[in-house]
Amino acid sequence: MSEHKASDTAAASPVAIGPEPSPISRADKLENMVQKLRSTPLFMTDLTDAGEDNMAVEALKSLAYDEPPEEMATNLKNEGNEQFKAKNYAEAVKFYTRAMDYDGHENKSLKVSLLTNRAAANLELQNYGRAIQDCADALRIRPQTPKALFRSARAFLALEKFDEARECCRWALELDPQGAEIKRLQNQIEQSQMAHDRRIREREEREKAKLRSRDLLKRAIEIRQGLTFDTTGAKKGLYAWENDSARQVVLDESSGHLQWP
């Protein structure tokens, strides 16, 4: 079975351009990105090990003591692929993980395939930190693996880490200049960045409008009642007429009238 969707038409070898990082250093940089993410609350649970207590895996493994490690790893990988196709992503992760236990062989392609396939399953499970870590490990074994960079970019995009996602796409295109999926992902990153920035601007504008309305209301009440207000010592910084309920004094800015609850 072929590996899951990714950019499969890689160039024969990367083209060195000026002082660009060597392929192996990409794995180091990806690892550094993961280490930074580990310190954030979002990743406190995401980077923990996935559960591996699966009876089907254990049964299959118990029958295979006489099989060569590479053959057993391949069988487990194929079962993981079947689980992935059935959208049983958590089960797929367990099979790929068990397959990696059989590492007494030198088949680097198999090891890389297991890591990138597990990354694909973890992407579906929204375990983005684990997916990035698997991609970094795959790049350490085989630096010229655009699929690992592509999936890292997808994970970073899901986390709204746009700069990191762009960097991974750039590296992937150095290895696979014609990668259509990579180019589509680049466009998706730019669209997502614009949407993200627009949401931030809209939220800031709403906050500004809210503060402006609150200030106008305060001034209107002070003028009409000859009072002055401050929030010193007030609960949650509320003015005297404010409360936590939906019943609030409202200023109709078009007429200048106060509407009392």
Structural write-up:
- Strand 1 and strand 2 form a beta hairpin.
- This protein is mainly alpha-helical.
- It has a two-stranded antiparallel ribbon with strand order 1-2.
- Helices cover 62% and strands 2% of the residues.
- The radius of gyration is 27 Å and the shape is elongated.
SSE inventory with pairings:
Elements lengths: L22 H16 L4 H4 L8 H8 L6 H17 L3 H13 L6 H17 L3 H14 L4 H13 L3 H14 L4 H46 L24 E3 L4 E3 L2
Antiparallel strand pairs: 1-2
Helix pairs in contact: 1-7, 4-5, 4-6, 5-6, 6-7, 6-8, 7-8, 8-9, 8-10, 9-10
How much of the residues is beta strand, in percent? under 5%
User: Count of helices?
Assistant: 10
Mean pLDDT: 76
Compute the CA-based radius of gyration. 27 Å
Terminal Cα span = 68 Å
Helical/strand content category = mainly alpha
Query: Strand count, sense and closure of the main sheet?
Result: 2 strands, antiparallel
Order of helices and strands: HHHHHHHHHHEE
Trace the largest sheet across and list its strands: 1-2
Given as residue ranges, the uncertain stretches (5+ residues, pLDDT < 50) are 6-21, 41-53, 227-237
Judging from the principal axes of the Cα atoms, what is the shape?
elongated
State the total count of DSSP E strands.
2
Instruction: Give the oligomer, counting copies of the same chain as homo and different chains as hetero.
Output: single chain
Helix content: 55-70%
